[in-house]
Amino acid sequence: xxxxxxxxxxxxxxxxxxxxxxxxxxxxxxxxxxxxxxxxxxxxxxxxxxxxxxxxxxxxxxxxxxxxxxxxxxxxxxxxxxxxxxxxxxxxxxxxxxxxxxxxxxxxxxxxxxxxxxxxxxxxxxxxxxxxxxxxxxxxxxxxxxxxxxxxxxxxxxxxxxxxxxxxxxxxxxxxxxxxxxxxxxxxxxxxxxxxxxxxxxxxxxxxxxxxxxxxxxxxxxxxxxxxxxxxxxxxxxxxxxxxxxxxxxxxxxxxxxxxxxxxxxxxxxxxxxxxxxxxxxxxxxxxxxxxxxxxxxxxxxxxxxxxxxxxxxxxxxxxxxxxxxxxxxxxxxxxxxxxxxxxxxxxxxxxxxxxxxxxxxxxxxxxxxxxxxxxxxxxxxxxxxxxxxxxxxxxxxxxxxxxxxxxxxxxxxxxxxxxxxxxxxxxxxxxxxxxxxxxxxxxxxxxxxxxxxxxxxxxxxxxxxxxxxxxxxxxxxxxxxxxxxxxxxxxxxxxxxxxxxxxxx
Amino acid sequence: xxxxxxxxxxxxxxxxxxxxxxxxxxxxxxxxxxxxxxxxxxxxxxxxxxxxxxxxxxxxxxxxxxxxxxxxxxxxxxxxxxxxxxxxxxxxxxxxxxxxxxxxxxxxxxxxxxxxxxxxxxxxxxxxxxxxxxxxxxxxxxxxxxxxxxxxxxxxxxxxxxxxxxxxxxxxxxxxxxxxxxxxxxxxxxxxxxxxxxxxxxxxxxxxxxxxxxxxxxxxxxxxxxxxxxxxxxxxxxxxxxxxxx
Lengths: 506, 246
What we know:
The complex is a heterodimer of chains A (506) and B (246). Chain A is mainly α. Chain A is 71% helix and 1% strand. In chain A, helix 5 packs antiparallel against helix 6, helix 10 packs antiparallel against helix 12 (259-279) and helix 13 packs across helix 19 (427-440). Chain A is globular. Chain B has helices at residues 45-52, 77-83, 99-110, 115-128, 144-156, 174-189, 201-207, 225-230, 235-244; strands at residues 5-16, 19-30, 34-38, 60-65, 68-70, 84-87, 162-166, 193-197, 210-215, 218-223. The mean pLDDT of chain B is 88. Chain B has 246 residues and is of the alpha/beta class. Chain B is globular, with a radius of gyration of 18 Å. Classes of the chains: A mainly alpha (506), B alpha/beta (246). At the A-B interface, helix 17 and helix 18 of A face helix 2, strand 6, helix 3 and helix 5 of B.
């Protein structure tokens, strides 16, 4: 062996770059290095091909080759009639498509559903494209205006007042319930051991009720005047717009800087006025379609979108609460999260639908769909909270310290520094929850709500279309619809992840 | 150097649970004074300067920064933090914001300065730390030394009266230590009041008015750098210097 250190070396000619040997790149390279590079891998490759063969071929045969494409009833999809083995029975889907999309929504009113879909898509798509401008206005419209418009479009009905009437009504309810509680206690005190105490507390409550009554008297008086006028909705609307705009103007900094706030407020009210006028809310709005008639994809989308939109703020609030240093908030958050995570969604839905009406007074009856919506939102919110908490824990402590050292308050530190980073870390987890929520919407069919899957199963019982392959066709179709939505969310989340993590690339 | 104290720490005591981290700390820092705090690790140097802008709470004593009293209840935290800038060992730049956004965040959200003005000011400070051309990069795309200089610029955009440096060069490659120290020397020349926790004794010799040596949560010795390095008085300081100045 030669002594290495004894032989100095200086390169004279630099080696030029050459292309890699074709054996290691391209398709042949892939075959050699990934699929056939060892006996074990050769075996796995063959097994994989066989598996693909046994899955893909029958699926294609069922869905396309042997499928029946036209027909008027079940006879078209019978083997005797078709003359060959029958796969998917697509005319059945064609016949039931309306039911799968709208449920029992009255046919004459289905344009309202279509309009809602179109509005939602028109607002959502630009929101999803990062290039397009005016994200603030767009998200405001989608998250605040759209739900209200969608409610009046889908459900129908109008309004009898506006801001003044609603607030007056709420305060009056509050006043009445306090006064009522007081009266109840005073009555109880006649037959109780701690009578004097009850009597005093009751009288105090009654007094508070009377006090509130006089405090809100100007408001209720205004409300009564407005309701007595010839145009109650528009009068109320005008008064509310003037009051709110004036408050915005003053809060925005008065004459000096308040113009922007004033302009924003006036434009918002102008938009609301246009909405009221277009939908005719001041004279009853559209005919009411009870939520029991809703069904199919409509219910699935309503539950999924409401759940997705509502679970984020719930999750963020609970996750921050669980990390709070204030014991009461922390304990409440932990208890809330653990309770909702520990209970199956089916139980939640069942309880909300069948048990809750037994406990609350009759005039508090909440719509069945709304109860399911609240149940799903809270349930998903609890899951979301734990995902987001993971993200919060992944943000280095120094980040919050640096922000505080610059003088940022806790709220600003959290919303500008900690949360944006935490949410980026957990995009995969968040989308995971969304996807699982989207599919869990099918559970509402056990509480007599007909979502996509529920409508599908209902359609199986139609004797006009009973064939051996009806159920398979239906489930294949529903599966495709679920897949399109879930896969879409998944791909979009990858896109967002890549975009937001631009700062981590070098 | 004027003698008006801008930071006045008196009878400061702090415990982590049962552990007495800071013991009877008294320290007066004059306007434009540059103090280097050194000592073995775990001696409470960082904890001390983190108390000054209330990143750490303390149980006894009082800190007055530019007339703003900060007692154990930390009631006037926000006011103090607006006057005190801080530079961390691990930079702590906000990775999801560009360099420019890092430097305009606090002026915009704390001082309500319009975005345009905040950006102009930020560019001025980025020029001072010699990285104006990197303003639109993300922190992750820069070297450690550049990041630390951005961190200094970020702190300066709030026009602090006092700057705290918590081992600003300890996480840097040897090559990059100098660029950060040069920035700090420039800052010192302009008359900034600085409290610097560091092991860079060359820096201490060059810019400090005073070296404070800490051990076991207390101030052991405080002297001019010339005196401290040439002639340490306490046995603990002698041992420390003999170990780091080999």
